[in-house]
Amino acid sequence: MCYTLYSNATKAMIGNYAGVPCKYTSPLKGLSDYVRTFYEKGCDKKCNSTLKFKNAKKLVAEADGVVLVMGTYLSIKVEALDRTEIDLPGQQNLLFLEVAYAAKGPVILVIMSRGGMDIEFAKCHPKITSILWIGIPGQEGGGALADIIFGRSNPCGRLPITWYPRSYVDLVPMTNTNMRPNPTTGQPGQTYRFYRGKTICSFGFGLSHSSYIYKLIKASNLVSIPLNQARSCCSSSCNAIDVADSFCNGLVFYVDIMVTNTGMMARSKSLSVAVLFSSYGLQRTRKKSWLISRRFGWRHDRNLC
């Protein structure tokens, strides 16, 4: 098995707010604890040169499996420094495509970054078996990554942000903080609540080594929303009711759901309830809102209600 680019990037693992770790477990170290490994950097962190691509391609042509660790670095995105694009930096896209094409075995793409990336080029690639976003994983991030890849732990994370296509940055100026879509300006809306365009990965998306069966047992057919104050929307052409002033203690309702873990591994699982909004008769209405999310843990072949 072999690894390229950020596999040994200990600084990118801990970010710029961390203290001084006692030790690091880089992706290279964590994966090396499981199997014999070979490492090739592929390019430097800016990845503006393709000179080392040939070394990476030569290595992966002989490897049984490939883990590509890619992403951003501290001089691209930190507090008070915003990205100007959401592609992988430099020539990382090209590095991925050339390495994946040359690889003899399956390829796992690992993204280490502070935010979403446009990885559409990798999602449907025939050599890709999985894609993992590990964010800024911390000093033991490499060990956690290896445990997931080799099945020692069962991932249960959910994306806390929407991953947009690269064209999104051209539609929404960085200084525009309006959430709702605006057909006049072409603003498509922001966040999962209002954005209705194509996504690379949606808010709340997440996979695991297990599979599940969901069954709705009971739910309210009608939920009443008592209003403290009724008024028109900000738009003069919108006749909807603003329920921002409704009393929360009058909005209680119950949903009974049974979830069966049909896989072979125990794990924790996030169960979330969202409300979907119809666009009928409303202008620039929100798409949905997350109401509640709870995490539970249970063994395989067990039901959770």
UniProtKB/TrEMBL annotation:
GO molecular function, one term: xylan 1,4-beta-xylosidase activity
A GO cellular-component term linked to this record: apoplast
Domain of life the protein comes from: Eukaryota
Keywords on record: Glycosidase, Hydrolase
InterPro entries, per the entry: BXL (IPR044993), Glyco_hydro_3_C (IPR002772), Glyco_hydro_3_C_sf (IPR036881)
Coiled-coil portions: none
Domain Glycoside hydrolase family 3 C-terminal: 8-207
One BP annotation, GO: arabinan catabolic process
Record's protein name: Fibronectin type III-like domain-containing protein
Origin species: Artemisia annua (Sweet wormwood)
